[in-house]
Amino acid sequence: MTQSKRFKAISIIFAAIFLSVSLFAQNENGYVLIQQKCTPCHLKSDIAPYDFSKVDVIQQNAKTILYSIEHNYMPLWFANPTVRHFYGERVLSETEKTIIINWVENLEADAKQPEPYIDSNLEQNVNQDRKSNLSASSANTYNFENLSDKVFINFSELTQTLPSYISGATLSFSDKKIVHHAVVYGLDSASKNYRIAKNAPSSNLQVNGMGDVNLGVYAPGLNYSLLPDGFGYKSSATKGLLIEKHLLKLSDETKITTTANFYYCDNINVREVKSLNLTNLNNNFPIEPNTVKTYHGKAQLQDSISLLAVMPHFHKIAIHFYAFAVSPKSDTIPLLELKKWSFDWQTIYRLNTLLLLPKNTLIYYEVTYDNTAANPANPSNPPEMVWVNKGWSTKNEMMVFGLQYTAYKNGDETQKLNWVDLDANEVIE
Ligand code: HEC
Spelled out in words, what is the top-level CATH class assigned to the domain 134-428? Predict the structure, then answer.
């Protein structure tokens, strides 16, 4: 063999090894990507159909999986990533799409199933092993005359009160289908009334009891996460807890156990995170049947704030949301666009880095409601008159844009936010 022939042969062997290694790596990546981007929902059938941790299930459903990815229908994520990226966003890059599509196509063509590659870190990425410090439960029986109910948990019934700051709280119910929304407040007076936030940094809006005493919320599909280290919600709770629930009307008497789990801050020196809800509860308005309408809201900030997260809240017939801010220097700061709204997948959109909204910034938000029969989420068929911001019934609508923020400090613009995911099983069960 001449030198050049030997070189060619060696090159071919190397190229073949390289090719098979990269193909193999691609196979692994296709499976791993599905585990990262799809299995968090497609594991237990109560959240979404199919168990995608099993290769044979992926193989049997290859056609629908390919369709769902090619049409950007899955993974389920409604925020437009070209407007803003968020922590934990479930979107696929074009490269990731190609890798999954190639892997699933190969799998579909090949009756022999490859051994799945299991990344030992995978489980940790999804569920971090953080346990709650305090769990408070209360069982109540309802006959559903009221759509709204308040549960009081007196601290004298518990072994401990809350510390001054917590990293987060979760709410769960023995029957999730009956509770459609809930908020937990800390009580600092024996009167069992929660304080309405004072000194909210905004005008032209009403702060709806959701100031510095709102410790946690529940809504269908909500993605729970704890605040990054160094931040805390002020609990200001010395007397007890109040859990306000919005219930669906049912005919039978039903017992519901409500559980609130609290996670304390590891650090005592924390920056206080407050929540602010932009809404207009004084001004309710109707959406006529068979109409599609867009409504606008606006608020001005009286102080400079650093934004951590945003959360819009509507009921069933909202279809589109857009929010942006305009700074006093006339810079436009895009906040969030929801290409679609799903009542069942309400989401807290958490930022990866603090976002400065300077003093006097104007926040604009708009919601489109589709009250026609063409909207499959419409609870009434034929469509009925729907009121916005009038009561809690899911047949009516709400228009709320929630912000989580901290007072601005120099250098916040580059402050990364390391959110802490919770074990979904601990949250749900
Ligand atoms: C946030 C949760 C979530 C994530 C993440 C998610 N899905 Fe889904 N998926 C759902 C739900 C809920 C449904 C059923 C309701 C629906 O069709 O909208 C569903 C339905 C599907 C269906 C069935 C569609 C049909 O009409 O039968 C396929 C296929 C699918 N998902 C594939 C995927 C793939 C592939 C990924 C990852 C790239 C993924 N999903 C990520 C929640 C999710």
Answer: mainly beta
